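Quick one, probably user error.
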């Protein structure tokens, strides 16, 4: 595990030090591993594609444009994941606010229980009504949370399907480029 962390750290830090920008996509389907690197270094831009031992490299601007075009749907999924993340965060803030209100009502309930005023029963009923209102809000939040989780699962299923299509496109793009002399094996 430490070795993997060291390798990943080295891989992420080295490009930053060398002035290189790296985008990386890795899909593992069963026993298949596919890697795509798009690298820009001192004005030189190239992409590498690895698919189960077949490794390709291209610097051709047309091929790079095809690669970028094939990746657009995946980038759109990133935006959708970000949107869902923001919605999850908002629900988290609402859950936190409800938690604080539950705590406040519990403290108020305890304070009223210790008091000896004539309106203790009326105040207890009022606090219990407020707690039921909070429970309804809590149930609504949980329903919304479940809806978001279903949306997330559906997005992930759809994305997985499109990842397979994107991988097939990458294979085709690099094979065509190799055949046209615009890519090479390495």
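Nope, works fine. Designed sequence:
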């Amino acid at each position: 595990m430490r070795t993997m962390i060291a390798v990943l750290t080295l891989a992420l830090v080295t490009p930053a030090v060398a002035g290189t920008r790296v985008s990386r996509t890795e899909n593992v389907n069963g026993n298949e591993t596919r890697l795509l690197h798009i690298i820009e270094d001192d004005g030189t831009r190239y992409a590498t594609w690895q698919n189960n031992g077949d490794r390709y490299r291209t610097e051709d601007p047309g091929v790079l444009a095809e690669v970028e075009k094939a990746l657009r749907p995946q980038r759109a999924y990133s935006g959708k994941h970000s949107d869902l993340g923001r919605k999850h965060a908002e629900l988290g803030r609402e859950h936190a606010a409800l938690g604080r209100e539950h705590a406040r009502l519990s403290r108020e309930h305890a304070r009223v229980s210790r008091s000896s005023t004539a309106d203790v029963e009326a105040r207890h009923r009022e606090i219990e009504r407020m707690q039921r209102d909070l429970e309804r809000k809590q149930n609504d939040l949980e329903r919304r949370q479940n809806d978001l989780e279903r949306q997330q699962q559906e997005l992930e299923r759809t994305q997985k399907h499109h990842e397979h299509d994107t991988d097939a496109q990458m294979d085709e793009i690099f094979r065509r480029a190799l055949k046209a002399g615009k890519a090479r094996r390495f």
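The chain is about 70% helix and 20% strand.
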